[in-house]
Amino acid sequence: MSIPVTITDDSMLSRKNIRKALPPELNAEITEACNGQEALAAVYSGKAELLFLDLQMPIMDGFEVLAELQKREHNTVVIVISADIQPKAVERVLALGALRFLQKPLNQQQLHQVLLEVGLL
Amino acid sequence: MNQHHLFEHVVTQLSIGACIVDPDLNIVFWNHFFADRLQLQSTEVQGKSILELFPEQAGFLKRKLQSVFVLKNASYSYWEQRPVVFQFKSSRPITGEECQMFQNVEIYPIVDEEQQVSCACITVHDMTVTASYHQELTRLTQKLEEEKAQQQQLIRRLEEAQNQLLQSEKMAAIGQLAAGVAHEINNPVGFIFSNLQTLQEYLQKMGKYIDLLGKIIDKVPQNTLHAMKADYVQRNQLEMVLADCPELVAESLEGADRVMAIVKSLKEFSHVDSTDWQEADITQGIESTLRILSNELKYKAEVVRHYAPNLPHLYCQPMQLNQVFMNLLVNAAQAIETFGKIEVKVQEVENALEVKIQDSGSGIAPEHLKRIFEPFFTTKPVGQGTGLGLSLSYSIIHRHQGQIKVTSELGKGTCFTLILPLLTAEMLTDAENSAKTDVSSV
Amino acid sequence: MNADVTISELQRDALQEVMNISMGQAANALAQLIDIRVILSIPKITMTTPEGLHTLYCPESPHYFARQSFMGDLRGEVISIISHDGCAQLGESMEYDQPMTANSYDELVLELTNILAGACLKGMVEQMSTRLHLAAPALFNPQFQPKPDYNWQHSLTLEICFSIENASFNSRVVICLDEESILVLKTRLDTLLN
After folding, report:
1. Which domain holds residue C71?
2. Is C106's Cβ below 8 Å from some Cβ in B?
3. A3-117: CATH homologous superfamily?
4. Most buried among B48, B76, B80, B157, using CB within 10 Å?
5. Cβ–Cβ gap A14/C17 under 8 Å
6. In this prediction, does ipTM exceed 0.90?
7. Which residues of chain A from 23 to 52 reach within 8 Å of chain C, CB to CB?
């Protein structure tokens, strides 16, 4: 059974890295989004049971996406992956409803651990 | 030799200090550089806090080491900003002029297999030689700058002296010329004058004689004689001739008189007379000059005097100084158009007498101020004044080793200040002698 | 250099990401060391010519200049341009001996340069498996330097602005790579992309 996963980041390299880091047993059906708007579109069309979200993006950033998602009912698991890991940012993101925060560059083992913790694996 | 021995060898041979600390800032190892200077072997200090061993720089060391452990990057310190980190004595205790070692300190992170910073290595480089050279260079540069500044000053003074010398040479040359010319002119003008005076007398006599003859002829009852006389008088315009003669002679006399006055000024200008020197009260000289000028001054200005009490007598040439006073007072009066004020102040200053003559006249234009002491410089129309008065005064004051200065404001007035040093006879002859040697050595 | 020193869109994208991550890590590291919050901008990647570089040397307000060389797989220099404004505050925050002297300010500029250069380059080292060795930083005054015989035409520069909260501290760190290094960099970026 495959799980719809959306990877949101304005950097192609970053999206590639996240894609590579996903464990194969997740059986992910991957959609890529370049900004917040595309990410929301993916969520609303059911393509994001698991959403990887970058924070710094043009048009609509990660914080705005989280704020939008909070307004509606959804069952998307949001994992924020960002370069900016200062404590204030982490706090803010978790308060806005993200389940986890991971630091770039993505560590495969860390990702595996988190997926186990949230029950997706 | 295995790698371990190789590295150990290298570390012991290196002439830089190496000290390794753990994340708690306790010493793990240090090399001979530290050991020799503190007389403490590495084994003796293992486990001790580096902050305790170097308390003066503890704050600095803590900050730098923290940055290395947190950021995992090297940190540096230079002798230019912080000459001494570790209080070691100079490595040149005999020949070196410094007391302590100048240091560059570098701190490197030592990373283990898990990419964690296990230790930090502090290296100390002895920069004393470089620092010494640098400081010496700085000192020399500074000294050069100072010398340069002094030289600039000297050059300026030399230029000034040269200008003054040129000026006084010019004046001297003109003086000589003036003296020569004056002398040559004096004789002929002298006898022109005296001849004219005689001629004046003779003309008067002849005039009276002609008059008498005319009257006698008139009394003779002979018409032909009368007619001859009338005819002659008319044809030769004798009436006009007789009327004009006295005026002609008088004007000629005036002219001759003027020439003689100019000659007199010129002679005085170049005259060096050392027999007039004596102690005198210059306020008396000023007063006598004012008396002579009283007629001229009373219609032009109110004269106000401020003489300080108990003024000392001045060793000087009184006649010459009086000429200066006359010159300045006449100038002052001439500068006033209708009626004004002339102030004369005399006071004692450091080893000298200061005389100020201030008028409320029309003032001197700034572009002329520089030139007023030049011989023959005058702003008066041709025929009035010789243009020699102030240059003569300058010369006289200079002979008294004094100074003459002028300040002026157009429309407000002019002030001449004379500084006359209180001289003695010896000082005067000394000065004259040294002036002679100066000239000869140039 | 005849070889092509231009970087493609993809390569630029990859480099931007590498630098973004480096900056995130640098900012975090700095926050641990300095009490004040330092704000690091997103690095601006440009190709520069010698004339372009010269404009760096003429900021409007007084600034300190320092430079630090690095070599290894990539070769170049980091130039830091640090505004006078705000240094006093930073010095206090970093626990420099008060009151600060001219020497303290010099030390501060050198330390800041070293910290920022180290932090920025570290990210590149870790993510692109490059070896880099930073030399010691040095102060310099572009006004008093003899104008160098620029023997390069292009340099890749990565410009990072950093400021402090509540202070008009406006400074920049510019990482300049030489022409050969640009080629090496392109190879590394291609490896990342594949």
Report:
1. 9-193
2. yes
3. Response regulator (3.40.50.2300)
4. B76
5. yes
6. no
7. none
